[in-house]
Amino acid sequence: MQQINSFEAYIKAYQNSIDNPEQFWDGVAHQFHWTKPWETTLEWNFTEPSIKWFAGGETNLCYNCIDRHLPTKANQTAIIFEPNNPDEEVRKLTYQELYIEVCKFANVLKSLGVNKGDRVCIYMPMVPEGAIAMLACARIGAIHSVVFAGFSATSLADRINDSECKILITADAVYRGDKLVALKNIVDEALANCPSIKNCIIYNNRNENINIVPNRDLWWHNLLVHISAENTAEPMDSEAPLFILYTSGSTGKPKGVLHTTAGYMIYVGYTFLNVFNYQPQEIFWCTADIGWVTGHSYLIYGPLLNGATTIMFEGVPNYPNAGRFWDVVDKHQVNIFYTAPTAIRALEAQGTQWFEGKDLSSLRVLGSVGEPINEEAWQWYHKNVGHSNCPIVDTWWQTETGGILISPIAGITPLKPAFATLPLPGVQPVLMDANGNEITENDVEGNLCIKFPWPGMSRTLYGDHERFRQTYYNTYKNYYFTGDGARRDHKGYYRITGRVDDVINVSGHRIGTGEVEDAINTHASVVESAVVGFPHDIKGQGICAFVIITTPQENLEQEIKETVSKIIGPFAKPDRIIIVPGLPKTRSGKIMRRILRKIAEGDISNLGDVSTLLDPGVVVEIRRLAGVFRGGI
Ligand code: WTA
Predict the structure, then answer these.
(1) pTM recorded for the entire structure
(2) Where is pLDDT greater, at 363 or 630?
């Protein structure tokens, strides 16, 4: 595939991709293997919205990730598995070995009656079998829905039921640091409420004693006995659904973001190669979990499409100590390291002694994703991890975009700390003003939209196209609205400032305020709640909940936090619960979150216009209870 090798080449490619988008993407698509060529490159309108790339063509993502490389790379390592416990064994799978495992597991799924278009839920730790399961689904044309294994039983069940998954693939248990998470117990609790699930396949990760439900539960290793390793990848229509990935929106119900086959494949393949400037033989390490889109696009599919070697790390950054990331970089001589600002800030807080004795000289490129990276963290990362000679690619994108949209090209785009810099070829970002018009000048701030399709974009929300239209294509007619705000500097560089909707970004995890409120409101003593984000030194944003209760009781704050942890997952636990007598509401009953946000931030000098409030007195009381009372409004 063509690789951009100079800034001039980037400018040229970008211009070409805007002037002749179809020709540009045709050129990229030709680098992949197709069983049937496409008839039209792009058909689109943003009103319905309806987007089709490479219509009429047939291809297979798994074939392009594995089979295509076998003639030249059969013995090259595809996946390096680094276990949670550094004393346990590293596993390496070559492309040939991965091919065999994926073919076998594809046959397992078929033998269980999984057909093209069926949904398969994957609730797995960060072990190669998670990747094998995803690739096997893609190979047979089943739609995978990976659910992050930190989600609770309730969240897992909601996601399984929304897309009526037929099979659930999981593991007995996993260690995260020194904590054992009994995945199968969570699964059992979830499956009590999931009528669509016919079978649950369990990978034996920890030899834990688990409950086996006869006729439903099957061990992964038993299914592999006597199974053929021959499997032909299913030719898939370009627009055939590839995967669903649930993400948070402003309301409680998670959205099943749907991606389709060819466009997603081409987009992640192209962006992986170019953003990281990947060179043959390099070792690539993305620390994201396969349960999030970064894990899909840049831990599995992007690297494998390019015949790269990718690391899957089961553990956490601070186990056995805060030097673990650097141990792994040293041990596997990692060349490209891609992580989240929250991890960088958490490690920064541990001091630089953790770098002592670690050889990080293999590193060539660093990446950041998931939330805005503040300048201090950027500088620390650049100096201590990159020894001031590795470019940092601050990659902005979303579950919905499939792949990176705005980012420097490693070693090529001049960097500016805390800026995601420039759009990748094919991407046409615009900033909108308060009246819904495009802002043409630079040095401005606005709401970030994209005005032309790119192949990796989501096509719909599973089972709810109307919600898809309303969420992304309704705020600004004929634009994809990202939900993010951004600043564009005098050179046209973008800096993403954060969400402008009711989504909070906690340690790079998107959490809907409505989702947390729904969870809090299930507590018997809660009357009503309102959740907002506030700046947090390590997590980027923390969660603050203002809660109205029936009667005061001991430990209620703790109980409410535990309720959220149980209903959504531990990562969504609020940092602060403030019990209040009332919430600031407009006369029409709408909660004014803007005011709560300011109070949670401790910024009460100017609460803005409170004249539309039903009862302005309630604000004075909330401020007092929040402990930030510093005089009258
Ligand atoms: C935020 C993760 C600033 C943003 C790939 C976006 C970022 C949301 C960046 C998507 C970045 C992601 N700089 N903010 N480099 N990358 N975001 O769907 O608010 O989990 O809308 O996808 O994360 O989160 P998601």
Answers:
(1) 0.95
(2) 363
